[in-house]
Amino acid sequence: MSVCWRKHPVSRNVLAVLVCWLLGGSACGAQEWANKMFDSTAHDFGTVARGAKCQFRFQVKNIYEEDAHISGIKSSCGCTTAQLTKADLKTFETAEVVADFNTRDFLGSKPATITVTFDKPYRADVQLRITGFIRSDVVLQPGSIDLGTVDVGKATEQRLQVTYAGRDNWKIVDAKTTEPYFEVELNELGRAVGKVSYELIVRLTKDAPVGYIKDQLILVTNDSRAQELPVDMEGRVASKITISPERLFIGAVQPGQTVTKKLVVRGKEPFKILDVKCADKAFHIEPSKDSKTVHLIQVVFTAGDDPGRVTRKISIVTDQGDNVVQAFTADAMVVKADAPDEPATTEPQEAEPAEK
Fold first, then answer.
1. What is the value of pTM for the model shown?
2. Whole-number Å distance between alpha carbons of 131 and 112
3. DSSP 58-121
């Protein structure tokens, strides 16, 4: 019996599935869809002091119409631990793979690979590379500048001690930061044979803007082996009014479908919501007339007929003055209903770019 293959063609998608199965999932180029979700897949901490807090956040964003799920993460080396901020990601939702470089228990050059495993919409592994060199002769205490949460309009400060053991003439000659609302005072505490210690006072000025602060203080030394040493700085300047979440992900919605999401608006003292401003009539929000410290409001989105991404900035006006107008961003994806008998695929459908 002869078989005529032309009468039974094999689709490209089905063939791709068979090839991936035969070669093994990690060997198939179809898994590039998962790599596209990361803004970067490698980070080098450079040369750092012992005890320094070294943390990097790999950003991952679901750019596809299908829901994504991260089933696990693991590190190849005990010098680096990894945590995931969120496992389930709808269209345009984001998460972070937080990599912490252990500078307390390890020294020298330490590379590590973090493997991020997806099981939805398809199985895939993404490898994130971490490198860094930990010095044994320079120690930070504490390991970073953590300013915590500061009310807007108020100044704060934190102290950091740097200890060096080695050359008698070792010095910190400067301490630099790119942000204008940081002030740094450098004081030498003591110098003995082969040992020197410094204290740094880092001040956040009262004109710092509202929002999350993430920066590095660069210690400039006279050491030719590693002239610069980074020190992480972080904190949050809190407004009188806050919105949670700051980015509202509505997900994939079919034309004409209505979805309701909840938003929490919180203040340090009772306030009223006077108005909600949004140029897109697809969004409907009823202002809260009562004066209270916490407002739970509903955001109603009705999808239009045109498929594509909808991203809108929505402002909330309160009775706390003209300078206290908070805003959040709403993200939705309008998609057509799935067509019947669609062929199998090895890649999710990438979402359309945002409307202008």
1. 0.73
2. 6
3. EEEE--BSS-EEEEEEEESSTTEEEEES-SEE-TT-EEEEEEEE--SS--EE--EEEEEEEEES
Looking at residue 24, its pLDDT comes to 47
Summarised one tens digit per residue, pLDDT across range 223-278 is 988 899 999 999 988 888 888 888 898 988 999 999 999 999 988 889 888 888 88
Q: Which two tokens stand for residue 306?
A: 């045109």
Residue 13 and residue 32: Cα distance in Å, rounded?
15
Question: Which residue, chain included where needed, has tokens 């970073």?
Answer: 144
CATH topology (fold) of 241-334: Immunoglobulin-like (2.60.40)
Helices (H) and strands (E) in the chain, counts: 2, 24
Compute the radius of gyration of the chain from its Cα atoms: 26
3-state SS class at 129: strand
Three-class DSSP category at 31: helix
What tokens appear for 64 in the block? 């596809």
d(CA 157, CA 18) in angstroms, rounded, equals 60
Q: State whether residue 183 is helix, strand or coil.
A: strand
Residue 4, helix vs strand vs coil = coil
Reduced to 3 states, what is the DSSP secondary structure of residue 288? coil
What CATH homologous superfamily does 144-238 map to? Immunoglobulins (2.60.40.10)
Q: Determine the Cα–Cα distance for residues 235 and 211; give it in Å rounded to an integer.
A: 9
CATH 2.60.40.10 boundaries in the chain: 31-136, 144-238, 241-334
Q: Which two tokens stand for residue 186?
A: 């450098």
The length of the chain in residues reads: 356
Fold of 31-136: Immunoglobulin-like (2.60.40)
- The gap from C-alpha 233 to its chain's centroid, in whole angstroms, comes to 16
